[in-house]
Amino acid sequence: MTKPLWQLDAVEISALTSSGELSVADMTAAAIARMRDKNPALNAVVEDLGEDAMRRARALDDDHANGAPAGPLHGVPVTIKVNVDQKGHATTNGVSALADAIAPEDAPVVRNLLRAGAVVIGRSNTPEFSFRADTDNALHGRTHNPWGDHVSPGGSSGGAGAAVMAGIGALGHGNDIGGSLRFPAAANGAVTVKPGLGRVPAWNPGQTRERGMLAQSMSVQGLIARSAADLHLSMPAIIAPDPRDPFHVPLPWRGNAPEAPIRVGFTRETYGFDLHPEVSGALDMARDALRDAGYQVEEITPPDIREAGLAGYQALLGEVKALMGPDIRAHGSPTIQAIFDAYFEQFPPYQGDELLQMMGQRSHYARQWSLFLERYPLVITPFLPQPFFAPDRDTEGSDGVREVLGAALWSYAMNFMGLPAGSVPTRLAELPQGTQPINIQIVGQRWREDLIVDACAAIEDRVGRMCDPLWARSG
Q1: What domains are there in the chain, each with its CATH number?
Q2: Which of 28, 95, 148, 418 is the right S-S partner for 197, CB 3.0 to 4.6 Å?
Q3: Active site residue 152
C-alpha cells in the first residue's frame, strides 16, 4: 500500500475488501483513527460510532470469509447526517429540543447503504432545522472547513462535506432542499450530484407527521464524495427501491446512451449579481475540459431561472412559515430565529391563494427546462457568483442572506423544478482571505444523474481531485 488507508477512495476500498486483500476491520480502524485525529478541530462528526463500526466490520469480514457475497460498498466507511433516522440514534436536526429523539428504524437511504456493505463510522453535523447554508447550532456547535476558518463549511450538510474532504470516511450522506448537498461540496471542494425528484427513496420512521408538499417535492437524499467515480459506485446503491416511499421512481442508474457528441449548454448568467474572475475562470476550465473530452459545448441563453428560483423559494418559505414556524419559534435559538426573519424579508413568503398558484406554476418552469434540455442534455452554470462566503455571513442581516442565498438562484431553482444538478471543483483560488476551491454546477435532464456524473468525471480527469492539494497542505 503506497498511501494511508484513510486516503483510499470508495472504489479502491470496495475492490480491496471484496478481493480479500484488505480486511474491513483494518479499513474501518484506519477511518476511525483518522476521524478521532482530525474531527476535534473540525467538529464535522457529532456522534462517534467507532465501536459499533468495528463490530460491523468484523461481522462483514466473518460473513465474507464464510462465502457471503460482498456488496458494492463492502467495507466503505460513511457518515450519516443527523437529520435522517438511524436506528437507536438521535435524529437531532441540530435542534436542542430533539437531542433525545431516538430513531425507531433506519431511513431508506441508511438501509440501502448498509445493505450495500457500507460501515457507518459517525453522524455528521447540520445547522438548526437543516435550514442554513452554513453549519452551526447550539446543540452540537460549529463545524469548520478543513481549508481553514476563513471559509464556511457550507450547509446544511456541512458536516458531511468537511468530513469527506478531511479524510473522515470516503462518503458522506447528505440531503438537499435548496442546495444542502451542493453548498458543502462547493465550500470544501468535494463532488456531488443532487438527485432529481423521486430518485432516492426518503422517509424518517420517527417523524410524527408528513412533511409539506413542497418539502416532499424539493428535498432529496444524496452523497458527497471526493471523486466522481465514487458517485458512480455508490449512487446505484442508494436509489434502490423502498416501499416506505410511495413516490420513489425505480429507474436504473444508467440510462440509454445519448447521441454523440453530447450537446452541453454553457452560461455565465448570474442575474444581476457580479461574477468574480475566479468563478469565471472555473467555468472556463469546465467548458474546456468537456470540449477536450469530446462534448459539444455551446454558449447559450437558458430559460430564465430567476423567476423560477424566487417563486420556488418564496413558496417553500410560505410552507415553512405555516408548518414549521411554531417549532422554530418554540425551539429555535435566537440566532436561527433572526436568520429566518432575514429569510422572510429577503424572500417574502407566498401565502393563501398565491401560495397555491405558485405551487401549480412549478410545472410551467419545469416544462420550460424539460424542453430546453431536450436540445442540451447538460448545462454548465455558475453555482455561486462569488467565491464561497465566510462563516456566519447569513447572520449579518438581509445583506448577508442576500449574499448567501439571494445569489444562489442556480441552486434552489433546480430543487423547485425537481431537476438533477451536480457540483464539481474546477479551480483552486488564492484569495486575500485564504486559499479555497471553486466549484461549478452541471444541470442535467430528468433521471440522467449518470450523465452529470460522467461530465464531472471528465472534468476531474483534467483538473484532478481537490482533496490532493488539501492533504498536501494539512496532512
Answers
A1: 5-474 (3.90.1300.10)
A2: 418
A3: no
